[in-house]
């Protein structure tokens, strides 16, 4: 069986046309100092690596094109 790589995403419904949409999470741009601070805040070990992800600030409906600011 083949393997599918999963990505974190957000689901939302367009208020204009009712279409369900999906948006991939975005990688947060962080300085090395900010990364260390976040790792401490979340209780991560110093050797743990990876990206911190968040929701996009703006989304656009793939059906009708209406744009929205986001909130989580």
Structural class: alpha+beta
Strand content: 25-35%
Taking all Cα atoms into account, the compactness measure Rg is 16 Å
- What coarse outline follows from CA principal-axis ratios? flat
Q: What ranges have pLDDT less than 50 throughout 5 or more consecutive residues? A: none
The biggest sheet amounts to: 2 strands, antiparallel
- Indicate the mean pLDDT: 94
Question: Strand order, biggest sheet?
Answer: 1-2
Q: Share of helix among residues?
A: 10-25%
Can you count the helices? 1
Please trace the helix and strand order, writing H or E for each element.
Answer: EEEHEEE
Q: Please, how many domains?
A: 1
Q: State the distance separating the first and last CA atoms.
A: 35 Å
What's the β-strand tally?
A: 6
Structure keywords:
72 residues, alpha+beta, two-stranded antiparallel ribbon, two-stranded antiparallel sheet, 1 helix
How are the elements arranged and paired?
Layout: E1 9-13, E2 20-24, E3 26-27, H1 32-41, E4 53-54, E5 58-60, E6 67-69
Antiparallel strand pairs: 1-2, 3-4, 5-6
């Amino acid at each position: 069986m083949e393997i599918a790589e999963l990505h974190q995403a957000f689901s939302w419904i367009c208020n204009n046309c009712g279409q369900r949409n999906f948006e991939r999470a975005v990688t947060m741009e962080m300085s090395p100092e900010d990364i260390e601070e976040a790792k401490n805040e979340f209780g991560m070990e110093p050797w743990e690596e990876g990206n911190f992800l968040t929701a996009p600030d703006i989304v656009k409906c793939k059906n009708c094109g209406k744009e929205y600011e986001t909130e989580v």
